[in-house]
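Retro notes, structure queue

What went well: the backlog is down to a handful. What didn't: a couple of records were mislabeled last round, so from now on we paste the full input next to the output in the thread. Example, using DUF6429 domain-containing protein from Sutterella wadsworthensis 2_1_59BFAA:
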Amino acid sequence: MQEQKNNEDTLTDDAIEAGIEELTLALLYLKRFKWNHDDQVARASWRSFDWETLDNLLQSSDLSGCDHKAVWISDEGIRRARNILEKYGLSHLEGAAEA
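Corresponding output:
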């Protein structure tokens, strides 16, 4: 138990934020749907997560755009989300997503 507490104490705010962004991207990917936007079909997800985290994902190019309701997941974001699911042993959930 003491070892677990020591590990928790060594997590930095940056590491925690990176983990939150990683898991948020994975959830956005799992909840994605097709949305016709600007005469193109986009892979979108509702903006139902922390807005600061979503802004960070937009800046990192994992998301390719947004409006007041939804965000669009970029090709890079799709690849990264799939890798995150694989990293956590959750790639079997990918088939449950719609788009």
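Agreed that this is the format going forward. Reviewer comment attached to the example: The chain has one domain: 1-96.
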